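Reminder to self: tokens first, then the designed residues, so the page reads top to bottom the way the pipeline ran.
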């Protein structure tokens, strides 16, 4: 029997304990469970585009004449920080100890978008699991 659930991680990993929210779309209510997980095999692939900063300087010289000549030099520095995007793809097999023993094979895709000068970070996690009950 294969049951499909969506798991949303509510808190980061603390050892091998993790707080998850289980949403059973066949039922109306949403149950919160504290799951004890052990990772048997873990293979992860990191695809990331790192941020880089480009700085260029404009030097503008303006000369105007009255009785004598004044030379004004204006130096302006422009810094452009580009948005970094990290994508983590985790392909792992997780053994979950609940009321019954279940094997979970899941793909975790986490995208982290950070904009440094605005101090804005958004985390998007998509977790797709197939749960197979042991008889």
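Designed residues (135 positions):
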């Amino acid at each position: 029997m294969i049951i499909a659930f969506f798991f949303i991680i509510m808190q980061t990993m603390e050892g091998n304990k993790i707080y998850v929210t289980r949403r059973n779309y066949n039922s109306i209510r949403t149950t919160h469970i504290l799951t004890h997980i052990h990772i048997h095999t873990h293979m992860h692939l990191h695809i990331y585009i790192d941020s880089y900063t480009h700085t260029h300087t404009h030097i503008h010289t303006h000369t105007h004449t009255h009785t004598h000549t004044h030379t004004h030099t204006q130096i302006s520095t422009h810094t452009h920080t580009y948005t970094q995007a990290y994508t983590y793809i985790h392909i792992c097999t997780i053994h979950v100890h609940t009321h019954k023993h279940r094997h979970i094979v899941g793909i975790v895709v986490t995208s982290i978008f950070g904009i440094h000068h605005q101090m804005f970070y958004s985390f998007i996690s998509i977790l797709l699991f197939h749960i197979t009950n042991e008889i």
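Confidence is low (pLDDT under 50) at residues 1-51, 82-100, 106-135.
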